[in-house]
Write a structure and sequence with these properties.
28% strand; 10 strands; alpha+beta; five-stranded mixed β-sheet; 263 residues
C-alpha cells in the first residue's frame, strides 16, 4: 500500500515554521496546505538549489480532498522558494483538474521534467493505450501552452474529467480551443485520456452537453511533430507519440465556467 505524506510533514521537514512568509499570499497558501485538520497530500516532490547561495526551490504535486468534495479542481502544483540567508519562504500554488497539468505548471516554473517524473508515485490506474500515454506526455510538457478556461468531473462511476482550454499552439489555427477528457469505468484498472479541438469555447461546451457526439480528434503523432518544431523554445525531453483507436462517446458532467486558481 502506498503512503502519501501530508503536507504537514513538509512543514516540519523544511522547518517552514521558522521562516517568515514573503507576503500575505504565501501565508494563505501555507495555511491551506498544512491545515492540521485536513492537510493536502503530497503525491510527488523534489528540490533543487536556487540560482543564488542560500536559496532552494521545492516542487510538489499534491491532492486537496477538501476541494474535491466541493467539486473544484483538486490537483495542485506547489512551488516553494526558500531563502535561508534571509530567513524567508515564498509559496505559489496552481489548482488544476488533472495531475499532468500540475506537472506542466511546475515544469514551467523551473522544475526538471525528468527529475519530477522520477518522483511521481506509481498510480493504481494505468494508461489504457498508447494514445493515452502520448496525451499524458504532451500535457506534462506543454508548459504555458494551454490557458485553462473551465473543468469538471464526476464523483461516482464512471469517472470522467473534462478540461476546456485555449491552445496557443493549436495544430489547426481555426480550432484554437482544446478539450481534454479523462475517463475510467467502475472497477477498471486503466483509464483513457483524449484530446480534441473546437472552433470556440461555446462549441466545446456544446460537446460536453451532448456526449453522444464524437470528440473531434487531435492526432497525437501530428501534435508531437508540431512540438518538435518548437523544441528550441523549450527545454524538455523528446516525447513518444502513437495513434490509438478512435474514441467512443463518454458521459460528461456539466459545470458552470470556473477558472483555475493561481496564488
Amino acid at each position: 500500500m502506498l503512503y502519501y505524506a501530508p503536507f504537514t510533514d513538509i512543514v516540519s521537514d523544511l522547518d517552514l515554521d521558522e521562516l517568515t512568509p514573503a507576503d500575505e499570499n504565501t501565508e494563505r497558501v501555507l495555511a491551506r496546505l498544512a491545515d492540521w485538520d485536513d492537510p493536502c497530500i503530497t503525491l510527488a516532490s523534489y528540490d533543487q538549489p536556487g540560482q543564488r547561495p542560500g536559496r532552494s526551490d521545492h516542487f510538489y504535486l499534491a491532492h486537496d480532498e477538501q476541494m474535491a468534495e466541493q467539486g473544484k479542481p483538486f490537483y495542485l502544483g506547489v512551488h516553494l522558494e526558500l531563502d535561508q540567508s534571509a530567513g524567508s519562504v515564498r509559496a505559489t500554488v496552481r489548482d488544476v483538474a488533472m495531475p499532468e497539468l500540475a506537472e506542466a505548471w511546475l515544469i514551467s516554473r523551473g522544475a526538471d521534467p525528468d527529475r519530477l517524473r522520477e518522483r511521481v508515485r506509481p498510480s493504481e490506474f494505468e494508461p489504457a493505450d498508447a494514445q493515452t500515454e502520448a496525451a499524458e506526455a504532451m500535457l506534462r510538457h506543454s508548459g504555458t501552452r494551454f490557458d485553462i478556461h473551465d473543468s469538471a468531473f464526476t464523483i461516482g462511476p464512471p469517472y470522467t474529467t473534462w478540461v476546456i482550454a485555449l491552445d496557443s499552439e493549436a495544430p489547426d489555427p481555426a480550432l484554437p480551443v482544446a478539450v481534454f477528457v479523462g475517463h475510467r469505468e467502475k472497477d477498471s484498472e486503466t483509464f483513457t485520456l483524449r484530446l480534441g479541438h473546437f472552433a470556440s469555447v461555446e462549441h466545446a461546451y456544446d460537446w460536453t452537453r451532448h456526449p453522444d457526439a464524437p470528440l473531434p480528434q487531435t492526432n497525437p503523432a501530428g501534435a508531437a511533430r508540431a512540438d518538435a518544431a518548437r523544441i528550441d523554445r523549450r527545454t524538455r525531453p523528446q516525447r513518444e507519440a502513437a495513434a490509438g483507436p478512435a474514441d467512443q462517446p463518454v458521459p460528461m458532467p456539466e459545470a458552470k465556467p470556473r477558472r483555475p486558481r493561481e496564488r
